[in-house]
Design goal:
Elements: E1 4-8, E2 15-20, H1 27-30, E3 38-42, E4 56-60, H2 70-83, E5 90-95, H3 97-109, E6 115-120, H4 123-129, E7 134-139, E8 142-149, E9 154-158, H5 167-184, H6 193-210, H7 225-234, H8 241-258, H9 264-277, H10 290-298, E10 309-311, E11 318-320, H11 325-337
Parallel strand pairs: 2-9, 3-4, 3-5, 5-6, 6-9
Antiparallel strand pairs: 1-2, 7-8, 10-11
């Protein structure tokens, strides 16, 4: 087995991300030395991780974004208690972005912080969700509004797991990969899948190392997410997260054009990259009221000073606060009607 190791450099809390075929075989070497038992948080039907050579149990969470909530955190923590998990033990999240978000938040909360190691089994998890320590759950008022920053001890991205993914899950991951295209300008599709994932991990690791708690540059990783989260909530999650991000990236290009930040050719590049290069939807599955989407976007956790978007410009991506609401509504109305 040959793997690539990318480190997220955070001083004493630095950790490796292992990318490669068969990378799950390295898992036992990545667990904390002090751990005497482990709880695996996963979902039915996902890949298994083999023998851990220490006492462990598995806790299963239901599929679907509706289960990314505080009730699931309570379910997991009560399971930790029943198993006798201590602060020195370890939680292992095995799954996609929903699993790693929930497992990470539960680990952050248990005994005020218990180690967590993630085994990402989806493309979205490998290139984004499992890395960086952002953990959260949803409440009716918004997506990812309750959570914590809790860095994992390690992340495993086993390329072999992608062979089990349905096409819809691969599209979901490609929505996040398309985002990295605009952050870095790298031609990711010219790479093998392993190289592509490793490059996305490298980009994210470098940004997180510089800005762990999203006080500056890390916000760029949310490109396309402002509209994406609103579409997920308004559409009752009829679109997977990555698919909504793809639509959000295209809209961000359109909004940047409406504000005079980029020219028409660059706006069209967003449509071409997402729609043609990555083969993703560029519009939502259903019709939406622009005013309702804006109401939801006002509650976005990034919206500190009015409506906040990550937008393209002459100097690359940047955070834009207090974007005029009338421009957003009118641009949305045109964008959604096409």
């Amino acid at each position: 087995m040959s793997s690539r190791i990318i480190r997220v450099e955070l001083g004493e809390r630095s950790y490796p991300v292992v990318v490669g075929h068969g990378a799950t075989k390295t898992l036992r070497t990545l667990l904390p030395a002090a751990a005497r038992r482990a709880v695996i948080v996963t979902q039915e039907g996902l890949p298994t991780i083999g023998d851990l050579d220490l006492p462990h149990t598995s806790l299963f969470i239901d599929r679907g974004e509706a289960n990314k909530n505080l009730s699931t955190i309570e379910h997991l923590c009560r399971g930790f208690a029943d198993f006798g998990l201590t602060r020195n033990d370890v939680v292992i999240g095995v799954g996609g972005g929903l699993v790693t978000d929930v497992a990470g938040f539960a680990a952050a909360s248990w005994h005020r912080g218990t180690s967590v190691v993630h085994v990402a089994t989806s493309l979205l998890g490998m290139v984004d969700a499992a890395i960086g320590g952002k953990t959260a759950v949803n409440i009716p008022e918004g997506k990812n509004l309750v959570g914590a920053f809790w860095q994992p001890r390690a992340v495993v991205c086993d390329i072999d797991h992608l062979s089990t993914l349905p096409e819809s899950e691969m599209r979901c991951g490609l929505g996040e990969v398309a985002k990295y295209h605009f952050i870095s300008g790298t031609d990711l599709l010219a790479m093998t899948m392993e190289e592509r994932i490793a490059e996305c991990v490298r980009i994210k690791a470098e940004i997180v190392s510089e800005d762990e708690r999203e006080g500056g540059r890390r916000a760029l990783l949310n490109y396309g997410h402002t509209l994406a989260h609103a579409l997920e909530i308004a559409g009752e999650h009829d679109m997977a997260h990555g698919e909504a991000v793809a639509v959000g990236v295209v809209f961000a290009g359109r909004l940047a054009g409406a504000l005079g930040l980029i020219d028409g050719n660059r706006v069209e590049t967003h449509e071409r990259v997402v729609g043609d290069t990555y083969g993703l939807r560029t519009r939502p599955l259903r019709s939406h009221d622009p005013a309702e989407l804006v109401r939801i976007m006002r509650r976005d956790k990034k919206a500190i000073n009015g409506l906040t978007f990550i937008l393209d410009g002459a100097g690359g991506l940047a955070v834009h606060n207090d974007v005029p609401e009338d421009v957003v509504v009118e641009t949305l109305r045109t964008f959604l009607s096409e």
